[in-house]
Design brief:
The protein is of the alpha+beta class and about 200 residues long. The chain is built from 3 helices and 13 strands, in the order ββαβββαββββαββββ.
């Protein structure tokens, strides 16, 4: 059964951050299916476009089931609404996004939701986040999904993990949204009453 996905940024024929995508895919296969073998996404992407900016979507279960390339346009996000769920579980990048979609539906007039679990910030519906304070970028210690870009930025020392209580957001100056397709600091909002809305 094919239940999981990897979304990979492709720039001029090169799959970005492939090591972290392979690691997450194989860790998911091991945890969910007990598969100990190691697959390499590169073995399944022979039709990769040679120029331009694309999204590569890899669908997998025990094995890789489908690979597709498509043009990518970044969603416009200018405001976030805080929403809470203490039970949401999205530790694996599943094709089943019903819980995330239900929370996204609560966004009201805002562009996306910033999800709070047990009073601690996690992610938006599409991205990991980092908050800036005095020139240092902090990312939630317990995100809904440990993203591949997040893993790379932590490895590079760009981000620092910490718990960010939802009632302390105003002590930070900016919030950055990022994922495999959205480069870090390409989508940054100043934190104020117009950009981060409480229910």
């Amino acid at each position: 059964m094919c239940r999981f996905i990897e979304t990979i940024q492709v720039r001029d024929g090169k799959l970005q951050n492939l090591a972290h995508h392979n690691r997450r895919m194989n860790e998911t296969r091991q945890a969910v299916f007990g598969m100990a073998d190691q697959l390499d996404i590169l073995d399944y992407t022979g039709d990769c476009p040679e120029s331009g900016f694309y999204k590569c979507r890899v669908v997998y279960g025990r094995e890789v089931c489908e690979v597709a390339f498509s043009a990518y346009t970044m969603r416009t996000v200018r405001s976030l609404r805080l929403v809470g769920s203490d039970t949401i579980d999205y530790r694996y990048k599943s094709m089943d996004r019903k819980e995330l979609e239900a929370l996204y539906a609560l966004r009201g007039n805002q562009d996306d939701v910033l999800i709070v679990r047990n009073n601690i910030l996690t992610d938006t519906s599409i991205a990991n986040v980092a908050l800036e304070k005095e020139g240092v970028w902090y990312t939630p210690r317990t995100p809904l999904l440990k993203g591949t870009k997040r893993a790379l930025l932590l490895e590079q020392g760009v981000l620092t993990e910490c718990d960010i209580p939802s009632d302390e957001i105003s002590s930070y100056s900016h919030i950055a949204l990022f994922n495999a397709m959205i480069d870090f600091q390409s989508l940054v909002l100043e934190i104020n009453r117009d950009t981060v809305i409480r229910i």
